[in-house]
Amino acid sequence: MSKLIQIEQLEKIYHLGKVKVEALRGVSFEINTGDFVSIMGPSGSGKSTLMHIIGCLDYPTGGKYFLSGQDVSKLNDNQLALFRNQKIGFVFQEFNLLPKATILRNVELPLTYNNTHSKNKKQLAVQALEKVGLGDRLKHRPNEISGGQKQRVAIARALVNHPSIILADEPTGNLDSKTGQDIMKMIEKLHDKGNTIILVTHEPEIAQYSQRIIHLKDGLIDKDEVIA
Amino acid sequence: MILQSLKIALESLWANKMRSFLSMLGIIIGVGAVIAIVSVGTGSTQQITSRIANLGSNMITIYPRTPRGQGGTVSSGSSQEKFSLELTEYMEKFCPSIIKVIPVKQVSGRLISDDINVNATILGTNIDYAEVNNYEVDMGNFINEDDNLERRQVIVLGSQLAEDLFEDDNPIGKKIKLNYENHAYMFEIIGLMKEKGSTIGGNLDDQAYIPLSVAMDKLTNSDYVTSYIAQAASTEKASTAVSELENFMVKFLDDEDQEQFRVISQDEILDTVSSVTGTMSMMLGGIAAISLLVGGIGIMNIMLVSVTERTREIGVRKALGARNIHILFQFLMESLNLSSFGGLLGIGFGWITAYFLSRYGDWPMVIAPLSVGLAFGFALFIGIFFGLYPAMKAAKMNPVDALRYE
Asked: Is B267 a member of any domain?
């Protein structure tokens, strides 16, 4: 198994006025290609900050983060944007679809930013939507579909660029438990097909779908357990 | 990438049609106003110019100047006493660009018909006066050569003067009394002129015309005329004619500084008129340009609101791999689209406004391509200028904060 993510003594300190907030105080772990890992912890434990750094949305203030062997902490804004586009597929709690755009356009969005030819773009987006079972809803807008369907659109959008990691931040947080389970089964299936999945959650039942749980507490790893 | 941003921008503008239209409104009105005002300015100037040109073809007037004394002494002799009748022949001879010179003797008198009397300017002149002034007879005849040779006491009335004296009656053949310097002269009315309006010689309709010989020999007993009216061979030759006349007068009067006479041409008046109307349209155009600027500020305002409102969208786009420049271009394209589309609509709006105004004001409709280009170019510039700040604000957003934005 090749090492996809290597994190060494990662630190993130926010300066809010005069107050210094230590969100991460030296976190180290590794994730291999094809893993399904949950990051758990109560609010304020630093799991969101960790997710932002893994997702190349934010810089660490200390330590090292290697993604596919690349030192992410040394990249500039544009290179980070490219990494987000190529290597990360985000699934958010609030879905974060563009409300005025059709579902097809929403899924095409990541392809827009890497100059995919418009013909391929549509084809790839349709394929991704078919994978999540929404091939017949291309022209609908997000307000015309259910929450579960929205999250499936978001998953299709995350998949469309064939990313190295699917990063799901509380993907069931805005869904009822039945729909949440459906979404988790879909994510599990993606893992079975070989996708690397990192799940950020505070719900133990959701974390149970993964093979390994990293428990964070006060900016440090409290427990790193393999469960399957 | 620009094409990509253009597409994204158009989609989001289309999604907010009403708002897009409202924010375009300032630009539409601004561009429209610039085009309409410039068109009205040019159209009305053309109308005035053609009216002035209509007043008399290539007319040049030569007046004596009031002599200035040096120090305490009165200058020797008025230049008026050099404006003799023979001078007309010399002028015609020495100024090749001039076809004709008409002497004019102007007096003021009181015209009395029955119980009505009117103060009027009386011009002693000859038959050419009417021709040079494009002045047409309504009834009867103008002064002819025989009238002048035989010093007939005949008079031709301007339209306003005739109305004042006789209202709607036909005055031809009637006798009228002219009181001039305590002497009364009886004149027979032989003609009535059509309405003409103002020219460089004053309002022709308020004047009466008598033979030059009568004015000079009978009324004033003078050898000198009041002024000359010269006609240039063509409009193109008018300015040459002016300088020829000036040179001639300088030599004839031995007056290097042109202190004793003044040559006024139709051109000069046209210049004055067009500089006045030019200033007017510049001023109005300036006001319109300010409204364009205000339109630009409106766009900036809307763009800032739009950027704040779509913070979450910006965050999502960045999370999905949009670079800062993608976001910058997207928002810049939006404001550029607003201003260019507004500019296009404004051109149409200005065109229609100019059309109706020209119909209403009865002047030719002139749309200067320069004003269209300038107004549209300025609108585009405003779109970029006022779009840049909101777009930069959007581009610089931190993706984490933008995603968290509620």
From this structure: no
Quote the pTM value: 0.71
Handedness of CA B203, B204, B210, B216 (dihedral sign): positive
Residues of B in Cβ contact (< 8 Å) with A101? 11
B276 and B233 fall within a common domain: no
Asked if B106 and B251 sit in the same domain, the reply is: yes
The answer to whether residues B248 and B120 belong to one domain is: yes
B177-228 per-position pLDDT tens digit? 998 888 889 999 999 998 877 665 567 888 899 999 888 888 888 888 888 8
The pLDDT score that the predictor gives to residue B5 is: 80
- Residue B68: the pLDDT is 58
Task: Please report, as a single letter, which amino acid is at residue B370.
Answer: L
The whole-angstrom separation of Cα A60 and Cα A67 is 13
List Cα–Cα distances, B84 to A84, A192, B88, B104, B209, in angstroms.
Answer: 99, 119, 8, 11, 20
Q: Do B317 and A84 touch (CB under 8 A)?
A: no
Q: Return the pLDDT at B198.
A: 65
Residue where one domain finishes, among candidates B205, B232, B259: B259
Are B87 and B25 members of one domain?
A: no
- Kindly determine whether residue A113 and residue B321, on different chains, have CB atoms separated by under 8 Å: yes
Contact B319 A96 (CB under 8 A): yes
pLDDT bin (cut points 50, 70, 90) of residue B70 is low
| Same domain, yes or no: B355 and B207 | no
Residue B16 inside a domain? The answer is yes
Mind spelling out the 3-state secondary structure of B277-291?
Answer: HHHHHHHHHHHHHHH
* Percent of chain B clearing pLDDT 70 (strictly above): 94
List chain B residues with CB under 8 Å of A50: none
Mean pLDDT of A57-86: 91
pLDDT digits (tens, 9 = 90+) for B135-160: 888 888 899 888 888 889 999 999 88
Tokens encoding B45:
């100037």
* CATH class name, domain A34-59+77-226: alpha beta
Q: How many domains does chain B have?
A: 2
Which tops the pLDDT comparison, B82 or A193?
A193
Cβ proximity of B65 and B79 under 8 Å: yes
- What would you report as the CA-atom Rg of chain B, rounded to the nearest whole angstrom? 34
- Whether residue B266 is contained in a domain is answered as no
Task: Kindly state whether residues B94 and B25 are assigned to the same domain.
Answer: no
Domain enclosing residue B137, as ranges: 66-259
Å between A222 CA and nearest CA of chain B: 25
- pLDDT confidence tier of residue B315, bands split at 50, 70 and 90: very high
- Interface confidence, given as ipTM, is 0.93
Domain edges within chain A: 34-59+77-226
Mutate to test the interface with B, among A59, A76, A84, A161 (most CBs of B within 10 A): A84
Tell me whether residue B320 is in a domain.
Answer: yes
Q: Tokens for A76, please give them.
A: 């500039």
